[in-house]
Amino acid sequence: MAVSLHHIVIDAHDLPRLARFWTQVLDWKILSEREREVVIGTAETAPVGICFMPTTDHKAVKNRVHLDLSPDPEDREREIERIIALGARRVEIGQTGGESWTVLADPEGNEFCVLRPKAMLIS
Amino acid sequence: MAVSLHHIVIDAHDLPRLARFWTQVLDWKILSEREREVVIGTAETAPVGICFMPTTDHKAVKNRVHLDLSPDPEDREREIERIIALGARRVEIGQTGGESWTVLADPEGNEFCVLRPKAMLIS
């Protein structure tokens, strides 16, 4: 393959804080930490990691790119509460209530979804 | 693990077109295609796929979440030209020229980076 997906990059104000939040959510670890770049992943050789880089921009609109997380179905509600306790919050971005996901935002407002088993089965 | 990264979701206006662009960039395939959701990945069992979902929002600001792609170092310039021929364009988002990446945008304006070997080595 001539080009491959390397990192998901998230612009951040407080890199160490946001990186720590996401390592706790995903049970990943910090792979490298520098002032202007923190990388997290499952392991050095993992196919995809998340890289946090600094921005001074304030969040203005709903992100056009976001992450979907799949929980163990029986742990879904407990997982959502655990993630909220880590610093996330529930957000309203026009959901109708019929969605097969719950929308949360990380401590810097980046939306992400925790899927229901239905969405995990069909996608 | 109680929750895992399932999909990267990209809001899109023309789902089939954007999904096709990204399958061609990454040499991935379309795993499922419905009117309101197109999923691409390397295989059904791949750790992370990209899911395209519809939006009516117009792109207004630089995305806070983007993808970094790593090319084979010797193919980097050819890869950038190949990706541009598929429908990407070079964009200026305040680069100083000293970055270890080239910024492109997909056909709907979503920024992404093609790394230089230096960035691939240190991250």
How would you portray this structure in words?
- The structure is a homodimer of 123-residue chains.
- Chain A is α/β, with parallel strands linked by helices.
- Chain A folds into two domains: 1-55, 2,3-Dihydroxybiphenyl 1,2-Dioxygenase, domain 1; 66-117, 2,3-Dihydroxybiphenyl 1,2-Dioxygenase, domain 1.
- Helix content of chain A is 23%, strand content 37%.
- Chain A has three helices and eight strands; from the N terminus they run E-H-E-E-E-E-H-E-E-E-H.
- In chain A, strands 1-4-3-2 form a four-stranded mixed β-sheet, covered by helices on one side.
- The longest helix of chain A is centred in the first third of the chain and has 12 residues, at 15-26.
- Chain A is globular.
- The mean pLDDT of chain A is 92.
Compose a concise summary of this entry.
Two copies of one chain form a homodimer. Chain A has 123 residues and is α/β, with parallel strands linked by helices.
List its salient traits:
homodimer; 123 residues; alpha/beta; 2 domains; four-stranded mixed sheet; 8 strands
- The domain tally of chain A reads 2
Please identify the oligomeric state: homodimer
Uncertain residue ranges of chain A: none
Largest interface: A-B, 49 and 49 residues
Radius of gyration of chain A: 15 Å
N/C terminus separation of chain A: 25 Å
Mean pLDDT of chain A comes to 92
- Inertia-based shape of chain A: globular
Helix count of chain A? 3
CATH topology type of the largest domain in chain A: 2,3-Dihydroxybiphenyl 1,2-Dioxygenase, domain 1
| Percent in helix of chain A | 10-25%
Strand order of the largest sheet of chain A: 1-4-3-2
CATH class of the largest domain in chain A: Alpha Beta
Q: Give the helix/strand class of chain A.
A: alpha/beta
SSE order of chain A in H/E notation?
A: EHEEEEHEEEH
Summarize the main sheet of chain A.
4 strands, mixed
Taken as a percent bin, the fraction of beta residues of chain A is: 35-45%
Query: Could you state the CATH homologous superfamily of the largest domain in chain A?
Result: 2,3-Dihydroxybiphenyl 1,2-Dioxygenase, domain 1
Number of strands of chain A: 8
